[in-house]
C-alpha cells in the first residue's frame, strides 16, 4: 500500500461527520492511543477505509526520547492499530513524555546531545522491530532549548533519520513556532533538512501568548505558516499535508477554507 497523498485532516470524533462528507479527502490521521484494540475501530474510520481513504495512526505516548526503553505494551498497541486500520505507516514524536514512572502529560523537548541521539535511535530501533510498517518521526515545537545542546536542530534530526532509516513527519507549524521563539530563520532549517525523507506534513494554527508563539491546534492557520508551507513545497513538495485541529472547532465553512488554503499552498487538489 502506498503512503498518504494529497490533503488530509486529523480525524477526531467531534468532526467525524464533517470529515465523512469531504468528497476529495485522500487521508486522515488518528491518535493511535484513542483506537481500541479489543474491539473494532471507530465506525467513522471503518467507513473511511471502505472509501479508500488512507488512515495513519499517530502516536503520542511512546516517549521515544525517554531514557527508559519504550514500553513493549505501547509498541504492541501501535502495531496492532496499524494492522487494524491497514495503515501504510505510523508516526510518533521525537520527545519524551515520562520519566521515573511519572507522566508529564505533554510532549517535552530533548537536549540536542549525542547521548540523546543514541537514546532516540535505540528506542526507534526497538519500535521498528515490532512494527509491521515504517515509522515517520515528528520534531516537536519547543518553548526552550536545553543549555547543554551540542547539535543544532538540523544536525540532530539528520543524524537520527540517517541512523534509524525512519521517515520524517515535518510539522511546518512547529518549524514556524521554533524559529519565531528562537529568533532563527525557518528557511535556513528547511534548506538543511532531508526533505526527500518527508512522508507527510502537519499544518496547524497557533497564537502569541506571554511573549511566545504557541502551537495550539485550536487557532486558524496563519498567513506566515501558509507562506512557509509554500516555501517548503517550492523546494521539495512532499506527497501529502494534513491539517491538525484539536478543539475550538470552527464552522464547517471555515474548516473547508483552511483545507483549501493548505491545498493551494502545496499545489494539491482541493478536498472540499
TrEMBL record:
Pfam families: MbnB_TglH_ChrH
Domain of life (superkingdom): Bacteria
Gene3D superfamilies the record matches: Divalent-metal-dependent TIM barrel enzymes (3.20.20.150)
PANTHER family on file: UPF0276 PROTEIN HI_1600
NCBIfam families with a match to the protein in the record: PRK05409.1 (NF003818)
Protein's recorded name: Uncharacterized protein
